Amino acid sequence: MERMSDGSSFFVTTPIFYVNDVPHIGHAYTEVAADVLARWHRQRGDDTWFLTGTDEHGQKILRTATANGVTPQEWADKLVEEAWKPLLETIDLSNDDFIRTTEKRHEENVQKFLQHLYDTGYIYTGEYEGFYCVGCEEYKQPGDLLDGEGDYAGQKVCAIHSKPVELLHEKNYFFKMSAFAEQLLALYEERPDFVQPESARNEVMSFVRSGLDDLSISRSSFDWGVKVPWDETHVVYVWFDALLNYVTAVGYGQDDAEFERRWPATHLVGKDILRFHAVIWPAMLMAAGLQVPHRVFGHGWLLVGGEKMSKSKLTGIAPTQITDTFGSDAFRYYFLRAIHFGQDGSFSWEDLHARYTSELANGFGNLASRVIAMVNRYCDGVIPAAGDMTDADAAIRAIERTATATASIAIDRLAIHEAIGTVWELVDALNGYITEQEPWALAKDPEKRERLETVLNTAVRGLGTLAVLLSPVLTKATATLWTALGGDGVVQDVRIDQAWEWTGSGTVTPLEALFPRIETSAE
Fold first, then answer.
1. Opening angle at CA 212, ends 210 and 213, nearest 5
2. CA–CA separation, 516 and 21 (whole Å)
3. 3-state DSSP of 268-301
4. Residue 410 — φ and ψ, nearest 5°?
5. What are all long-range contacts of 483-491, with beta carbons under 8 Å and residues at least 24 apart?
């Protein structure tokens, strides 16, 4: 993938989340990953846009709203205001836009897109019978079904939701997806990074090679959705409508200049919705004569007790259960550092607590406190100038530069865990440097004054570089640290690709603990 630090466009999206329930840490994981990428690109000078939002149509929402005695719109409004928008604050997101599929800008332009496909012959009328999972809002192939157990014995259940599927027979409108199989396979071959990671790409390629069916894209048995423009007795299939948020939010159908500036996007999705994004979505775009996405990245699941989190199995953990104790910085850091981005990862309270203590409190937080305390104690808060540099000092300067460059390359590959790991090499190096140089011992000997000042200067420079490099991840702690270091302006505005060149007032102010100890059991 080409480097993007020439100020080119970087448009990153999360899936739009289905409002039939409240967010859990699996949703927040995708949001935080997209946020770190967006913040990093912004700080590198790229023309960045970060989109998230909510998916509010479909049968499941209609049924949930009806069961709760409200209209689907009232149900969606309540959940967006009380659950989904507050999530943005809980985990400190910097999204540029939040799209709801019930907004006029979305519904009107979905209709334009659909009409265009209809006019060009990619949509036809047909009849369909199949097993439908309301939980997935998707017709299921026989291979996606399991034999039910317990209460559902004798019935076919969805492999993802473990709930019975419904046999439906409807007259629907169909999208000629099968016409794009060859073009899709050519796309995957020509652009190996279009679907990532490799496991996701292999799965998508074998799915398309096994043959594509046309896609039923309308429903007539209920009315909660975008109306099909040429036949108001039908509403658009929820996924067909939802996928279009990625273009309706950046001007498709109404603002050509904005669309030209932003599209195509980098999509981050959970691997359970990979096929929609890597097969159906590019086929839709090809049919409309639009560019396919820049890339589709299918990350793994968060597992709790070895199982994928789900509300129905009560394994869903609300993000606030973590942030109320550990804070948003620790939430962001933990999920992006502890889990190889792209693979499944297990969450445990013990691991979170251990990493918080060893890496954030003892590793980074303690380093920051010690360095600033020593500048206050030995130099009255004035950052000293460096004298003659030794190999040890030069080694720290070199790590500042290599960490900056290597982390940036990892971000381009969407290897967020590697980027953070690379920056953490500087945390470890600085801790080792202070242990070896023993500034507290140097301070006792007036003849070693210049050496003491060089060591403190080197440590402060490294700490400021860390503040810049970690600012997309640890948004709050780095802002606090930056103020204590006397850094110029706002840390989020400092060029991350030149992190080691940061400037400041030359004086430090006392710093409270960035990551206070959490002594109690984290359960």
1. 130
2. 33
3. EEEHHHHHHHHHHHHHHHHHCCCCCCCEEEEECC
4. -65, -40
5. 483/509, 484/368, 484/372, 484/508, 484/509, 484/510, 484/511, 485/372, 485/460, 486/383, 491/467
Binding-site residues for Zn(2+), in ranges, read 133, 136, 158, 161
pLDDT digits (tens, 9 = 90+) for 225-258: 999 999 999 999 999 999 999 999 999 999 999 9
What gap in Å lies between CA 474 and CA 466, rounded to an integer?
10
Domains in the chain, CATH or no CATH each: 10-122+180-211+236-328 (3.40.50.620), 123-175 (no CATH), 360-501 (1.10.730.10)
Q: What is the pLDDT of residues 284-316, one digit of tens each?
A: 999 999 999 999 999 988 888 766 655 555 457
DSSP 227: E
Q: Are 12 and 50 in contact (CB under 8 A)?
A: yes
Compute mean pLDDT per 10 residues along the chain, 523 residues long, and list them. Answer: 56 93 88 98 97 94 93 95 94 98 97 98 90 84 86 88 85 95 98 95 96 92 93 93 98 97 96 94 98 95 72 69 94 94 89 96 97 98 97 98 98 97 98 98 97 98 98 98 98 97 97 88 45
How many Å is the Cα radius of gyration of the chain?
A: 26
Catalytic positions: 24, 27, 133, 136, 158, 161, 308, 311
